[in-house]
Write a structure and sequence with these properties.
alpha/beta, Rossmann fold, six-stranded parallel β-sheet, 6 helices
């Protein structure tokens, strides 16, 4: 269930330095994240958290979403940790394997399976899921009763990407409907990435 994350050239060095705050970019899924979603709550409480904007949240096109991520990361002055949810995880995976930009790590939550009947017809270009290994530290979060992605599917993604897999139990799609509030468990995982501890663990 757990595989060590990659620590290649695009992982920022020295993130464990005392007092260093790594910026965070959030990548919502389809329809954007509303005010009760943990991504929005995190943004409201942290000035160094910024959302990746997309021109069309309701009819996602993979190439457009990937370009949106590229623009936002390119405009961020220092390597950030990216936090993706749902369809944002698939867009991120495509982006990560094509960009030359540096990031500090990624937290990927509730990856949807584009081959499932529940996958929205309005989202185009998100299959097949890229399964090449990332070259930065990453954590994948799975819920045991997510209607959009089975545990086995998410486990395959995490293993292929070289991500650490964290099972949060029965949390649905890990969204606002899951009533997680500010989701402290997820925030703790994010802080592990911001501190560079995932990469340090992998190097041992």
């Amino acid at each position: 269930m757990i595989s060590l994350p990659g620590t290649g050239s695009r992982r920022a060095n020295g993130l464990e330095s005392v007092g260093m705050r790594v910026p965070v970019l959030t990548i919502p899924g389809m329809f954007n994240s509303g005010p009760l979603h943990w991504q929005s709550i995190w943004e409201s409480k942290n000035a160094d958290f910024t959302r990746v904007p997309q021109a069309d949240w309701d009819h996602p096109v993979r190439s457009e979403w990937v370009a949106g991520i590229e623009r936002k990361v390119a405009s961020t002055p220092s390597p950030a940790v990216l936090v993706a949810h749902s369809l944002g995880c698939l867009a991120f995976a495509y982006w990560a394997l094509s960009t030359r930009l540096q990031i500090a790590g990624a937290l990927l939550v509730a990856i949807p399976d584009p081959t499932r009947p529940q996958f929205p017809d309005e989202a185009t270009g998100f299959a097949p899921v890229p399964l090449q290994k990332f070259d930065f530290a990453s954590i994948v979060v799975v819920s045991s009763n997510d209607p959009y992605g089975s545990f086995d599917f998410v486990d395959r993604c995490a293993s292929a990407w070289g991500s650490r897999l964290v099972n949060v139990g029965q949390a649905g799609h890990v969204n606002a409907d899951s009533a997680l509030g500010d989701w402290p468990e997820g925030f703790e995982l994010l802080e592990t990435l911001r501190a560079g501890k995932e990469g340090l663990a992998a190097a041992r």
